[in-house]
Design a protein that fits this description.
single chain, alpha+beta, 6 helices
Amino acid sequence: MSLMRSRRALLGCGVLLLSPGPLAAALAKADVDTPAASLAGQLLVATPEMGDPRFARTVILLVQHSAKAAVGIVINRPARELPMVQLLEALGLDSGGSDGTATVFAGGPVQPEIGFIVHSSEFRRPGTVDIDEHLALTRDPQVLRAIGRHEGPRKSLIAFGYAGWGPEQLEGELASGAWFTTPEEPSLVFDLDRATLWEEATKRRTIPL
């Protein structure tokens, strides 16, 4: 079973029972012939020149990047905060022994019914995808059970949807000044107040605004 499927509204709309195929295909496509200059693991920060309102003031963690495609997760748009028990039950998972709450993020406009977990890299499950030496991504919903029982990764971020780019599309947007990149830091991905993350990331821009 892929993360995530549900008959309940987690992001204000029905989250459907789907296979991981579309996101898995996007990740696999981006991972083919990944160049040494891959931006995977970088933060993609929208500039004031961003013309697409869907991405205004967003900070995106690039999960995969190659000449063929790029895939990223918006990390500064929390959508819902739910008790962990409620989230697990909505996904049809055993909630026994779980406690705490989970913040669910709107990860991007592409396939918002698809969910996954970005987490610290010490935690691994079959199918886990490495982002860089600090971060990984897992689609297996059983990771949520481990998190609810305090047996999961040290740090995690739950998201629905992702941002995707075709061949050379992201490079063109970077060249136009819609984005700039900066190295990720786990504290930026997981810890910093989401309301101030864009401002903090923007301070790292290496060219004048």
